[in-house]
């Protein structure tokens, strides 16, 4: 009977926590025009289309007519989209490969050479980049050519530039973000201090997470000026001597003048949740609040932000909703 009383207390406490969490989510949703559009992981957005996966199905959602289609692909993860092309990591036959799907023709093809279990593809126009066995590969699907372009991991592509993480390519540095020019074949080091990782590129800007401390912070490189600026705070101390910062680097994305990221700690820098950073204004906005230690995967295109929960931090049976925020449809929550 004594244990029953303890169990009731635990159940009541759990119910209160769940209620508080739902209140937080509801308040955020009503303030920022948040819409649940599905369930799954790894959302990506381009134009009026959002793509994500639940591991066995690829979901494609049309923002204009609010309809979606699905097609089977067991072992699917890490989808990316550009115009009418979707790419993702596929293990439906037990062997890692990269799937390429053409939306306009509803046809699917595969890249099978130089792909491993960690390959995460990124696509721009007819070019796809990924890494395998610490090497970076580029494939042009318009002429079916493929080449190794560097030594590293986590590549991203914009137009004729590819950025990636490398620990072996620059003889003068241990850990770097490198940039490869497709037209000239030239490589250069963007940054070589701290622990830079997860590079992302859009137009003339490159961002990355410096994960030297805790969950890291975001820094940005301007290709034209070669200047590096901090987007979020590295590890520091607030006026009371409490540690803060280095809690914004788990997932980052950039498009035009916007950067979105996940913050997982409540500290002097701000509350945890999904954030939007306006590059021109130099200002961060909390889009959707979460409790601490919740890891999200936000992506952005124009006025659309999409996100889910990082599959590495959930059990796969709950908390895997995909959300959409339309910045043009309503007010933002708060600024930090």
TrEMBL record:
NCBIfam families: beta_prop_Msarc (TIGR04275). It comes from Methanosarcina mazei (Methanosarcina frisia). This is Cell surface protein. InterPro entries: Beta_prop_Msarc. It comes from the Archaea.
């Amino acid at each position: 009977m004594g244990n029953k009383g303890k169990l009731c207390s635990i159940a009541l406490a759990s119910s209160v926590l769940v209620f508080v969490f739902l209140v937080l989510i509801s308040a955020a949703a009503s303030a920022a025009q948040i819409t649940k559009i599905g369930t799954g992981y790894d959302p990506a957005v381009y134009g009026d289309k959002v793509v994500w996966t639940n591991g066995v199905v690829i979901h494609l959602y049309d923002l204009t007519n609010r309809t979606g289609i699905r097609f089977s692909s067991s072992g699917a993860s890490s989808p990316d989209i550009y115009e009418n092309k979707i790419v993702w990591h596929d293990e439906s036959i037990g062997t890692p490969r990269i799937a390429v799907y053409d939306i306009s023709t509803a046809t699917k093809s595969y890249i099978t050479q130089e792909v491993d279990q960690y390959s995460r593809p990124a696509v721009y126009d007819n070019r796809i980049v990924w890494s395998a066995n610490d090497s970076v590969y580029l494939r042009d699907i318009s002429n079916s050519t493929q080449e190794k372009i560097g030594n590293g991991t986590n590549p991203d592509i914009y137009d004729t530039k590819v950025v990636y993480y490398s620990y072996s390519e620059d003889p003068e540095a241990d850990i770097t973000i490198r940039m490869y020019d497709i037209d000239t074949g030239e490589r250069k080091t963007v940054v070589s201090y701290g622990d830079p990782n997860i590079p992302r590129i859009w137009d003339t800007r490159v961002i990355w997470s410096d994960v030297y401390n805790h969950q890291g912070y975001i820094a940005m490189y301007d290709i034209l000026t070669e200047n590096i600026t901090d987007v979020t705070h590295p590890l520091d101390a607030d006026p009371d001597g409490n540690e803060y910062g280095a809690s914004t680097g788990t997932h980052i994305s950039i498009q035009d003048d916007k950067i979105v990221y996940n913050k997982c700690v409540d500290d002097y820098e701000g509350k945890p949740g999904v954030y939007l950073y306006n590059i021109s204004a130099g200002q961060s906005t909390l889009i959707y609040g979460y409790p601490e230690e919740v890891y999200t995967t936000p992506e952005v295109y124009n006025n659309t932000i999409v996100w889910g929960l990082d599959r590495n931090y959930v059990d796969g049976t709950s908390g895997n909703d995909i959300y959409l925020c339309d910045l043009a449809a309503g007010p933002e929550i708060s600024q930090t």
